[in-house]
Amino acid sequence: MTRLAVDGGSPVRTQPLPTVLVPAGRTFGAEERAAVLEVLDSGVLNASCGGPWLAELEATMAGLHGIAHAVASSSGTAALHLAVAAVDPEPGDEVITTPLTDWGTIAAILAQNAVPVFADVDPLTGNLDPASVEACLSPRTRAILVVHLFGAAAPVAELRTLADRAGVPLIEDCAQAYLARPAPAAPPVGTYGAVGCFSLQQYKHVTAGDGGLCITADPAHAERMRLFADKAWPRDEGRFHRFLALNYRMTNLTAAVAAVQLRRLPEVVARRRRLAARLLAAVGDLPGVDLPDQPELHAWWVLPLIVDGGNERWATALSAEGIPAVAGWLESPVYLYPALTERRTYGQSAFPLTSPPARRDWTYGPGLCPRAERLVGDTLVVLPWNENYTDADVDDIATALTKVAGALTP
């Protein structure tokens, strides 16, 4: 058996792979530079004061998804807050969501004075389990907020059925899953719920450094989100403010870069899918490892592995082979973060997690979602993925996976 690099053997790879933090791992080019200079030369950096880029960005996003409305904002977290604000929960209302997500998903719920209720996940995908969601429904449920994790579409048809039956909207967090689809010929994610939310942060498929986008078929949701992003200021009517809202405006500089990047999105996703298909063909059925299938549906934000156990050992071994890998992705499910375990929300009040306004005092601790906890602590390994990998890069990843699986699987 070939000796692992972590045990003193020779690594598969000694050169770093392209990442989203270096030019070789991004798709910036002359068009982005020209767009930025156009904005600077115009002297108008605030999109609410004029300029074409914000309108182009929103029109392109809506067109890519075959939906009527797109609303830009300053970040992916802002986009999620717009979506929660659009469904307008009462203080203490509940939003069912996943424990495996960025904190922005939860911050958007708490910032609108609603309570995050955590359903457990599928042990092979990390996406919400509809049966667990159904068990979390209550008379105070105001929305279901699903995250399409790692680039794989969550079971949105089942979740939409649950939401419709409960009479509540479904919100989709698509930050990691641009153009992912739940089935062949199905519409892309983001179009199944009341609002779909996307991020333009540095680590996403396309980026403007930061920025967010929401899509919706509902003109009332679109209007409320536009207002919420601009302090509820109806600029065509006068200088007053309709309701409590924040400044989540996107700048023209961000919109210009994002608009050009969004033109590149279909090709970026297509390249990630082609490279993933090459990897899956090369590794076949690795013992002790579950990999995503149907590469043509997945968005391949990262490459998630589900191993039989010992994810720290897997991540250490792969990293030693020259293939960066992280065990668990998160340090813990988000409900174990101090903000929730210590209920640090608004001063010392624990609002809105207390009764009233909630139906009961909400506390969060270990054991709440066992499958999510096992993924983070034992079975999930995440590798970065990039559209600018070469075939040789992918072959090295396949070689390293095969080598490590052979050594660590009994």
UniProtKB/TrEMBL annotation:
Q: Which InterPro entries match?
A: DegT/StrS_aminotransferase, PyrdxlP-dep_Trfase, PyrdxlP-dep_Trfase_major, PyrdxlP-dep_Trfase_small
Cofactor(s) recorded for this entry are: pyridoxal 5'-phosphate
Q: Which residues carry this modification: N6-(pyridoxal phosphate)lysine?
A: 204
Keyword set includes Transferase: yes
Active site located where? 204
What keywords would UniProt list here? Answer: Aminotransferase, Pyridoxal phosphate, Transferase
Protein name, please? Aminotransferase class V-fold PLP-dependent enzyme
Species this chain originates from: Jiangella ureilytica
Tell me the lineage of the source organism.
Answer: Bacteria, Bacillati, Actinomycetota, Actinomycetes, Jiangellales
